Amino acid sequence: MLFFQSVLLLGYAYAHWLHEKVSGRKQAVVHILVLAASLLALPIVPNPAWRTATVGNPAWRILALLALTIGLPYFLLSSTSPLLQAWYARTHKSGMPYRLFALSNFASMLALLSYPVLVEPALAARTQAGIWSVAYAVFAALCGLTAWRVSTRGGGAEVAATPTPDISPAPAGWTLRLLWIAFAACASILLLAVTTHLTQDVAAIPFLWILPLSVYLLTFILCFESSRYYRRWVFLPLSVLALGFLAYRLWPNRPVMAMKPLIALLAVSLFVCCMVCHGELVRRRPPARYLTSFYVSISLGGALGGIFVGLLAPYLFSGYYEFHLGLALCAALIVTALWKASRPVARAALAVALAGYLFALGVVLREAVQPYRVVARNFYGQLRVKDEGDPKTDDTATRKLIHGTINHGEQMLREPYRHMPVTYFCPASGIGRAMKALEGAPRRIGILGLGCGTLAAYGHPGDTIRIYEINPQVLQLANSEFSYLRDTPARTEVAMGDGRLVLESEAGQQFDLLVMDAFSGDSVPVHLITREAFRDYFRHLKPNGIVAVNISNRYLDLQPVMANAAADFGKVALVYHFDPDEEDFLCFACSWVLIMDPATLAAHPDLRQQSAVLQPRPGFRTWTDDFSNLFGILM
């Protein structure tokens, strides 16, 4: 999103410069030359040399990769909407060029919704890149032809659209420009904050991030299509309810709400707030002669919101406080929009209401961190450590490592449970059975994903446990807040970085057991479960070794992915679905898949108990680094 918003700003700034500083025929020549240069970036396939297992903050590396791979083509695409509108205003004496902005956002929303349903399930990534590159070349030719035709039609002074009472006099002053930037930044901050809240604190449902982005685009479409869709007397009262609900949602002691109504209310609240921000933008739009300057201000606001949330907030705040600040900014902008036309009594009421809301947000922010021992945040998200129960009297007293709503591991606080593997890793689970099957001799165990270090509880004297972890804060908390790593009699090693990439760079580790537990709750890092990834896992196994994969997931059925991966390498895959008794406070329901050679299974017949052999699903396509289909495994 940050890359999208930043390059959008650059594209709009280029369109503004071209429109304001370069005359007709020269304008066409410059744009055609830049379009031709952008073709050199095709096809849009990232260079494998950018792959790295380096830990730390990968944000700048990701931005650089995107810039080199798709930067110039996207830069040209982003400049097209304001340029076409400027050309339209130059060549048409009537009509509203701003409606073309609504059309471009409508097309963006169609692409967003159709990609995971129609494109990704049908085409490999390189095929997609090839088709897109050909389509872009056609676009570049059509855009260049349009620029040339417009330049040959006289190049006279631009004709402003028919003014309306809502249109500001031009050129706009700095106060008005700052309002444009502030409204756009506010909508951008709320979009990103609500997306994070939905996917981290409500449910890690695949594709859920599409909902807030679609809502955001929809408000652009409605507001720029026609002024009749944004009515102050409708949306300003609704914004009071929306801001109140969103502040209430951030209160840590709120009652639990059913997931579907909650998602709907969050989407509606975001819709209302973005309608106000974008509606007030449209009320203050300049005549079409100055539309490129208007779009630069809008894109600058969006980019500033993205920079604040994507780059600054993870290092300024320990929690997701940008949500609170976005709500405060939205409330302040609503008061600002109403201030000039309000009477003194109404202004006093607005000031009191704003002060009360800001105070309430401050209280909510303070209360959000009080129940936790530790709250930490970096590029990979927010981690919290929380104690529940009294270890002096309560056998169920536990310490939890939490990422959003996802439990990343627990340790019981009372003896004898303190040293036991619990939650998804109990002895009766699939991973527990694999650990038991390999007992009797010193073992070398590899683990992708540390959590709080629970699997170290299976370590015996003589064992070596090598852990791969991408998030430095996870390692820090596992050492400072939990004791699994300190207490295990096994020798432990920690390799920091993306597990798959670190394994690719290492010589064969000769693991007896390699455990893949690096999923972030119900989100799936696809690159860890492709055919190429499993090829590397098997390279690091002993001939009689086992790969264990935690496939516990509420929304995705990963069994066919595992079945195909095993079959492609002549392995057998056993799935274990474990459901503990109601009175069992140590174990969670979980699903594990163990993948091994048939000879290994024959040597450990006990592994067949309470398991099922996975068979490839007819017609299911093996996932590779070039192809995956999350939509096809939704439950």
Protein described:
- The protein has 19 helices and twelve strands.
- A hairpin with a 2-residue loop joins strand 1 and strand 2 (381-388).
- The protein folds into three domains: 1-162, no CATH class; 166-308 and 318-338; 417-633, 3-Layer(aba) Sandwich (Rossmann fold).
- The chain starts with a helix and ends in a 22-residue tail after the last strand.
- The protein is 52% helix and 12% strand.
- 42% of the residues are buried.
- With 635 residues, the protein is an alpha/beta fold.
- Helix 3 runs parallel beside helix 5 (125-151), helix 4 runs antiparallel to helix 7 (210-225) and helix 9 crosses helix 11.
Helical stretch count?
Answer: 19
Sketch the major β-sheet: 8 strands, mixed
Annotation, overall tally of beta strands: 12
**What is the name of the CATH topology of the largest domain?**
Rossmann fold
Beta-strand percent range: 5-15%
The named CATH superfamily of the largest domain: Vaccinia Virus protein VP39
The overall average pLDDT, rounded, is 89
- Can you give the helix content as a percent range? 40-55%
Q: Any idea what the radius of gyration is?
A: 28 Å
Record the strand order, biggest sheet: 7-6-5-8-9-11-10-12
Write down the domain tally.
3
Please state the second-level CATH architecture of the largest domain: 3-Layer(aba) Sandwich
